[in-house]
Amino acid sequence: MFSFAKIATIAAFAFGTFVSAVPVEERAVEARADTVINILDSLNSQVAPLAAQFTTLDASNATSAVISPIVSDISSAVQSAVSQISALPSGTTVDQTDALTSLSTVLSTILTPAGQVLSIPGISSAAIVPAFSPLGNALADLVSLVLKLVAELLSVVEATLVTLLSGLITVIDSLNLSPLLAALGL
Question: What's the superkingdom here (predicted)?
Answer without folding.
Answer: Eukaryota
